[in-house]
Amino acid sequence: MALPLLPGFSRRRNIGGENFHRSQICGYSNNVRRLFEDKPGIGGEPLPGQTLKISSSVHPEASGSGPPSWIAFDKQVLCFDAYFEEEVPEKHQELYRIRHCKIYFFLEDDTIQVTEPVVKDSGINQGTILRRGLVPLPPPNEDQFYTMYDFNINTEITLYGRKYKIIDCDLYTKNFLRKIGIRLNPPASRPDDPYTTERQKRYLESTNPFHPYERFDTLKQFLEFDGQVLGFSCVWNDPESKLPDPRELVLRYYLSDDTIDIREILPPNSGRDVVPFFLKRDKLPKNAPTAPHHPGTITNYTLLNVLAKPGRNKSYYIRDVLQTGAVRQEFYKDSDLKIGAVINVWGRQILLCDCDEFTKEHYRKKYGIVDFTPIEYKTPPPPKPEKIIPPYNGFGSEEDSLNSCKGVVIQTPHKDYRQFLVKDRYGMDSFILRYAAKLITDIAVDKDRKFIISYFLSDDTISVFEYAERNSGIAGGKFLERSRIKKPGQELFKSEPSEYYQAQDLFVGARLCFHGHNFLLVDADEYTFNYMEKNANEFPMADICAVFNKLKSMTESHGKEIRKAFAITDPEHTNVIGYDTFRNWIVSVAAGGFSEHEIMTLGRHYGIRDNSQTDLLLLLSMAQEKLKKNAFENFEQLITVFLYNDREKCGLLPNETCRTIFKSFKLPLADDLLETLLARFEDNQKQVDYKKFVHALNWRENQVRAFVEEKEQPKREDIWNQLPRSPPVTGIRYPPLLDDLFGKVE
């Protein structure tokens, strides 16, 4: 193992069986080539009486390879604390002076530097005392230089005739000296300069009695409470005012410097000029006169005029330590301000009536005050006369006529644009609830008429269309124009606004009256059922929890009888009964307490759905045709991105993640078509098999034949043949229903 060279170390080589120093061969020093060879005397022979110059290091020469000392000990310095005594001639106040300094020994080249810390107003040139360089030992060893072995604590060294006493060193120096085998002495005490000590003592004795220093420290209060202001509502009864009401003011107390400012609140048409401040921000004295003191009356210090003594030409001033003629004032603090207190603002008595929440919290924490009952200072305003709205006169709409009574300038009624933007048609969501209905009448011709009632959620309007029956004698088509419809049984000419049909009033089994025509809602389309079930908080008839709890409360005590009735109905033990059987059982149990929509909600929840769906091949053919027209062929990149996002490498990704990836590739497919296709390839956990989906879209490798089913143009009487059909429930699984109602049978 190669050891680093210490200062002054050099290398030897074995040349021809003998050891030669490199400096003797080619002029090397510390493994660095020199410009010249340092040879003593003439031709290397010393002159008579000449002494050889030894190396600057006392360490034995190293063997092997290693870095030179100026690299091994680069930026490594030994630091010592020292002092020296300096004589001061021709001055009787001091005979000598103690000067403290630091001695630095640089290990890379054995150089020494002495510096003295700069003391303010010392009158001595301080700083570097001895510049860095090699320092020879005192005579008779002046041909040798100081090394690290010459330094120790509590010893004296002589540098160019000046003696330095080393008293201590830093921790690195102590560890280094111990490693090289030097036993350290205990640290010495640091002496003080007698003249400096005497001077400081005389300065304190001379200044303390005559000029006591009073410090007014407000920085801590400013830093702690800066930006915190207490606010009070207050009043002042101006005796010179001819108005009966007091003047309202707002007082603000600044916790950072205990100052106060007051602003006035001017009512409209008060006749007073608007001024920035009623009281400018400043400390407010408690017992303040009507007029402030003259400048110079109140000061922090009192100075006494001392007349000149005989023999002295000038008089002088001294500080009055006893504060004999000082004018003392007490200022308002936060402890003096509270609700109900009266403060003196330069002769004006102001009553504090209320405060803000921050002020209440401040007094609650600091002073424990919990009663902040405000003081009523305002005369209660007279009650506003009741605005009598005249009854509706029949001209225009009720809203339009009501606006004509609210102001001179008639404005059009405001529409609910937020509702329109939120519930307007978007993508596959039409926000239209469609119901199948029939007339409630005794006329045989009208009993078989079929209607479609559409409720528009964007503006709460209703339209009615009639299905055209062949050979019925009724043309069909638009039966009622789209508009808002009032509920029956309301007075026509009245002052109160009328009530209109809302979305919650329409459900399967509901009876509605539109302008004298009574309708019974018998069915609804799939979108209507899904929308009402998703928003069950708005439609209680579609809330499965509420409907189930209602059924449970009716059948809780008849569990055994109901189980036997279902077992008799299902003799083959298929655990499935027909929807009509289930409906008849609900009607018999509830005895008319359930509406038709509530029965359908239970049936949809526990029923077996009809999974008739749009042909998947038709959707894929439409998607491939769109991709082919736009020349989209980045299917391999799609698979790569899907594999990167599939951290678990299971081949499945959430629906939202797949849709985001397709959007990033700018897939030229409509949003509704893409969502429908993703829904066809997802499982029960909303996970999409992206490999199958991308393979199905790849029109290059898996082309689906595009076809369009030709349909005959519908005739006019078949245009409105779009009646909603019953919920696609083919049967009811009754065991889960019975388990939820009465618990599982063990």
TrEMBL record:
Domain of life per record: Eukaryota
InterPro entries: DM10_dom (IPR006602), DUF5580_M (IPR049246), EF-hand-dom_pair (IPR011992), EFHC1/EFHC2/EFHB (IPR040193)
UniProt keyword annotations, A-Z: Cell projection, Cytoplasm, Cytoskeleton, Repeat
Entry-linked SUPFAM superfamilies: EF-hand (SSF47473)
Record-level GO BP terms: regulation of neuron projection development
Pfam entry (one): DM10_dom
GO cellular component: axoneme; microtubule
Residue ranges of every copy of the DM10 domain listed in the record: 74-181, 226-367, 429-536
Keyword Cell division: no
Compartments where located: Cytoplasm, Cytoskeleton, Cilium axoneme
Main location as per UniProt: cytoplasm
Gene3D superfamilies documented for this protein: 2.30.29.170, EF-hand (1.10.238.10)
Protein purpose: Microtubule inner protein (MIP) part of the dynein-decorated doublet microtubules (DMTs) in cilia axoneme, which is required for motile cilia beating.
Protein's UniProt name: EF-hand domain-containing family member C2
Species whose genome carries this gene: Junco hyemalis (Dark-eyed junco)
